[in-house]
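## Example pair
The file below holds two records. Each record gives the amino-acid sequence first, followed by its structure token line.
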Amino acid sequence: MNEDLLTAKRLLSGDEGAWRRFIAEFRAPCYTLAKRYRCHKHFEDFYSDLIFSLIRKDLKRYKGERPLGEFVMRRFSNIVSTYMHKAKRRDTVLIFEEHALEPSASVICEEEEIYTLLVTARAELKGDERKLLEDYYFRNRTLDELAEKRGVHATTIMRRLKKILGKLEARIEGR
């Protein structure tokens, strides 16, 4: 049995010394990765999430096919990526919420011009197009949910979304 698999078994059995060594060994590389993603201010939360996910389920799935360090770093990267994706979505939702379309909310965007383009492009969409875009991208509704609600097939919803995005893209690129 290789060393990494033995370490994983010790961690799963609750070996306190193994956990101390593990936490010390991976803290610096994980911090470096968080810093690369420019979200190191949340590092402690990410690292705690990593440890808890390893305890709950991830170490049980480790079979020793690749180095434990690679396995751990990939899991940490997934945790950070998920956070970044959700944070990006939350920020975008602010732009599209009705109360955020007030002039005082323009501080959400780094540049006034981008804010104006987004608001203008959004305003130029028909009501049902705007609602569909917001429901799918900013309220996390699935294609199936949207299709069922509108009485059409999910493929139709996907085509409509692509068409709407094309309109937005053309409007923004045309400035």
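Second record, same layout:
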Amino acid sequence: MLKIFDELETKRKDTRLGIPREEGEALYTFIKEHNIKRVVETGIAWGFTSHYILAALPEDGLLISLELNETIYTGIVVPKEWQARWIKYFGPSTENLKEVFIEHPNIDLFFHDSCHNFDTQMFEYKTALAFVKYLGSHDIKLQGPPYAWNSFIIQTRAPVLLKKGQLGIARIKGVETK
């Protein structure tokens, strides 16, 4: 797996996009250690975060991704042999995220890595609250202050289980918003 991550980091540096390797590896490790099987993520772009998630999921795992628009580059760094465990939806998360959660129950982790404005992030976090055990986000200090991630964590008192660079993951099962 390390060789694959080396190749992925080289591509990421070339494009200047995507989650940095040490954050991707932290996400990978979290998914493995917490026996995550089903993930919903917002934001695909080239697929760097999707790659780390799919690498960590078990063979019977599933990644459901939402992206605003499909392009020729959407998910290009994800190996073809992983495509069978990956469902993609296109359109604004504000219009279809809740329906995705309803259509695909038993989601373990929601991971935000898309539109990093405060309102979209808060919408996604609050929507995920009713459907998942864990909530993660990349670029947790973008588009602020105020920072949506910090605001959500304060409002819900959700325990943060992982923070690495711009990556954060909290347990949200059983927490409520103020």
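Notes on the second record: The first helix runs from residue 2 to 15. The chain is about 40% helix and 20% strand.
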